[in-house]
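question for whoever is on the cluster today: can someone run the full assembly for these? four chains, 668 residues total. i dont have access anymore since they changed the login thing
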Amino acid sequence: MKKVSVKDIAALSGVSVATVSRVINNNGRFSEETRKKVLKVIEETGYEMNYSAKTLRTNKSYTIGILVPDISNYFFADVVQKIEFTLFEKGYSTIICNTGRDEKKEMDYLKVLQGKGVDGLIVISGAEEFSFDYTEAKKEIPYICIDREPKDKSQTTFISSNHYQGAFEATEQLIKLGCTHPIFAVLNRKSTSAKTRLAGFKDALNKHSFTFNEASVLYLDNPPAKMKQQTQTFFTNYPETNGILATNDTIALELLNILHAMNYKIPEQIKVIGFDDSPITNYSSPPLSSVQQDTAKIADTAANHLLHLIQHPNETGQTLMIPVHLILRQSSAV
Amino acid sequence: MKKVSVKDIAALSGVSVATVSRVINNNGRFSEETRKKVLKVIEETGYEMNYSAKTLRTNKSYTIGILVPDISNYFFADVVQKIEFTLFEKGYSTIICNTGRDEKKEMDYLKVLQGKGVDGLIVISGAEEFSFDYTEAKKEIPYICIDREPKDKSQTTFISSNHYQGAFEATEQLIKLGCTHPIFAVLNRKSTSAKTRLAGFKDALNKHSFTFNEASVLYLDNPPAKMKQQTQTFFTNYPETNGILATNDTIALELLNILHAMNYKIPEQIKVIGFDDSPITNYSSPPLSSVQQDTAKIADTAANHLLHLIQHPNETGQTLMIPVHLILRQSSAV
DNA sequence: TTGTAAGCGTTATCAA
DNA sequence: TTGATAACGCTTACAA
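^ ran it for u. tokens below:
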């Protein structure tokens, strides 16, 4: 009772393994009659392709690796899920690697993925620049970077939400709503996207002739207890602060709680806007305004572009910007 | 500049491929001198194992498949992440399959996973019972079910939070806090775990001599708009309702919003408890009491048990219950 | 302790 | 239109 192989199919349908292979892959020529016969036997026996053998032979694994910092973060999970969906539709399976922002682990994963012969790689976010280590020039694996600056842009495709635009618009919105002292709240562990958001914030301030200085950015660290203390200190030093653009929704919500505890009224005294538009934004008090990323488009672009890159390895060097949308809710109301 | 193989290593270090293989896998005998020599060459050349070849030969893939309904759900993502971590530490990589609760997709995934020769499977949640279709008796793949009743418990290991206990305790808590008419809010698409929670709710009512009838369960459907209407109808019919145990946090939060809109005061008029204790519980208004699942323990148990099962395929039939903890917050305060 | 060689399930080349 | 066969990179008897 062992697994049935092409050889068995060949024997049962009275043709050679070569023919069976041709039928399965629909390449080369064979008669309609043969095709029917073979497919029938395949159906009956419940034959399933041994992908290891196929991969070994063809050097194509139909497997894609995804490097992601933290799959329990909604934004990442959502993107990954959608990428996985698209890839599966096209016959690829996906190995998801949760790096936990650990560089060593990332290297280990890369090694294994290479050993498994992945056809391509999608790298999502991260603090440092990403470059694939092609030492000794093995098979070059095409890769796509999402929200993570590649070291050498000519080697890959860079896909990113337009973080700059999002932060810029959100900041202008705060100003328009009357915030005289808007700040940007960001984690000290800074990702590529966070840096870009900061730039957007800064430029929006400039455009409206606000000064950007140490009173304009609130740097935070985990855990929440530390964040609370840092926030309190900041507000003691800069009590005039009346608008916050947070680098993501989690930070925004944490700040909401902290500000409540400090007896600030949101949005009356301080207006808050987050980033990512995760589902939680609807359930906070008050509901949180946020910059929505188009995860569907990001995922779709990434998946399709990678597949394209696999076919045409040298068409790299592009940077694709995905527009974002500011969603206004109670936390930034007038 | 092609990929280096055992053959190259053998040539470069002046031994046979067999010896190289022995050194790599540290099995069989070889002299210390040989070992050093071979490892040096491996190091220098940056050799990486071709896993397809290894898998083909040994029929072991060091790959585990995880079937999960929805990776953007925090509870699932958290469990998956932790399983993945443990498995990677032990040299396994993980193919995560997001089934989207689609039975056809689940079957397709199963086929591919089988073709890729996964050594084991972890199946998380889902509406119907799970049984692996071993038609034609291929290689039997050991699998673990988390939160999803296996069709035949003797074939697998069933791991689950103690949903019954959680629901029972939460219900008792509601009663203890003075709720005279507690209800259970659940989605119409009912999972194994939801059914068990309902049972716990029911038994707690019985214990305290409350009657369980159609006024005790609020059945809901997505999307939120529909949920709102269903809730309003329910409260028109049963206005005495003053306590809610929701089948998960998302439902609980949705209800919180709906009840606010209906001008109910939480927790004064209605007390609410959720399930899962996702991070959002801290940011809702009021903060949500919830039954916390021990994801770390679930994940760890699942991973280790599966690895054990791979070594000892016939030690199946266990059911492992993981205790849960009721976390009390504002939404159920007196 | 080490080497030789068979074989895992495919695909692809070459002949028929 | 088909078939025989080599090759992919690795492990593992069996020999030496």
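summary bc i know u wont read the tokens: Residues 3, 5-7, 17-18, 21-22, 24-25, 27-28, 49-58 of chain A lie near DNA strand C (CB under 10 Å from a C1'). The longest helix of chain A spans residues 295-311.
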